[in-house]
Amino acid sequence: MKINAINIKKYYYEVKKMTDLEMAKEKLIADKLTICIVKNGEVIYTSVEKGIYPIYNAAELMNEDLGGASIADRVIGKAAAMICKSVSVKSLYTEIITEEALSILEAINVVYSKKVPFIKNRDKSDLCPIEKISRTTDNTDELIKKIEEFLKGIERI
Asked: What residue segments make up the domains of the chain, in order of their start?
């Protein structure tokens, strides 16, 4: 079967018999993405951007549409976990997850490669800035506002 945009859903569901989570994970790895979101056999969001921005952006653009979706993401810390929970994600694959994020997502199917105590910044010298921000609140709406302020401050939005 030749794979193209028209029959990709059929390929993943009927030929490979993949779940949404398996499909998201395979695409994340194969296409070198940082996030892939799949719902009902269709890829609804992808990104190659790093940091919190992709999951923040997906939640801002498709809030209600993410309910029941499966997400594959490279790194999930507390902030990303809170966002996933707030939009009612069904399942999650990640390469790295924090202990706190895993606790937040205990009600959903989470598959991960490595559990860590916290996410480090890019040069590994300190905590990730979003990890620091997430430690200041357990309220998702407040966290989203703080993430938005942070992203505006670094000119990402």
From this structure: 8-153
